[in-house]
Amino acid sequence: MSEHERDYAEKRDFIRMRIDADVSLIHAGQEIAGTCVDLSSSGMQVQAPRQFTVGDLLTVRIDSEHAALRGLEADTEVVWTKAVGDDQHLGLKILKMR
To answer: Domain of 23?
Structure first.
């Protein structure tokens, strides 16, 4: 199996949940508001109003709407990008949950 075929197969090994959640993207000390489009145990797709490049490291924070539940905070790496209008969709690989 080629590297590309294995990468594609591995992507399908994780269940993706479609969500539309507000996120904070933290990059180089700057916080940028975005939207999480989908989420899996290994990564997420995020829509952002700013351009990032493959390899950028971002901290992603999704706050919980419920006081009793803690939100999500993760260190991620940009693994792909796609321009959509004025925004950019980012494929983020989760490196570490906080």
So the answer is: 3-97
